[in-house]
Amino acid sequence: MSLSKVKIILLFAVFLITGSIFSQEKKILTGQITTEESLISPIHIINITREKGTLSELSGYFSVEVQPGDLLLFSSIQFEKKEIQISNNIYEEGIVEVILLPDINELEEVRLHNLSGNLSKDINEIKTYDPSALGYTFSDRKPLSIEERKFSALNSNPVGMIYGAISGENKLLKKAIENNKLKKLVNKAKDQIPVEFFTETLFLKENKIFDFLYYCSLKSNFEELVNQNDPLILLNFLKKTIVEYNEFFKN
Q1: Does some domain include residue 54?
Q2: Is residue 105 part of a domain?
Q3: Of 27, 63, 153, 200, which has the most beta carbons under 10 Å away?
Q4: Does one domain contain both 74 and 133?
Q5: pLDDT of residue 171
Q6: What's the average model confidence in pLDDT over 109-135?
Q7: One domain for residues 137 and 204
Q8: pTM
Q9: Based on the number of CB atoms within 10 Å of its own CB, is 122 exposed (0-12), middle (13-18) or buried (19 or more)?
Q10: pLDDT at 160
Q11: What is the pLDDT of residues 18-40, one digit of tens each?
Q12: Domain range spanning residue 44?
């Protein structure tokens, strides 16, 4: 094969590689978020792969920088979170419609009881009912957990307070209340972040995700960060904390 033909083949190969690289360049994807109800606040749009974020307009319109294969997270306290993988088709079209569903939180069941005089028995035999079946108007107050209601009932009179202190029931209920609050906080953190971020970016096994989040909960600012409902802020915190977590278990 002559030298000139070799040069032509090499130039052609370079052209193909260059064309492939340019075809995968980042571009601005525009889109429209569709919902059953009006937006009361912008939607967080996080490019998990690039670790960059933006906010939608209240009209639902948004634009975000993407490449094929990127994972987008749409997050809001008003709607269920949604993840979209940027396929080649979405990338080429440059536009996408995203449908978000309302985030419906089920209320905890409420309990009624009649005191028998045996406080220990009363606490363990509380019956439940559905308040909506009785036509009660729901309050904006967050419903108490089972343990919080038991604690309140136990301490509603002097005899119950004395029994709770002597038996150790108060101490157990307080610990259960703390554990439940921590569990809800950790679950809230997990719900804000796609599993792929934990497994592909932080290199955690799925069965270690909760273990890592409970480790994160030891940090004084963890609750504040989770309650901001801003996935991008939480992502940055998790990326920093994973280094410390890995070092802790290495030693």
Answers
A1: yes
A2: no
A3: 153
A4: no
A5: 80
A6: 51
A7: no
A8: 0.64
A9: middle
A10: 67
A11: 444 444 588 999 999 999 888 88
A12: 3-99
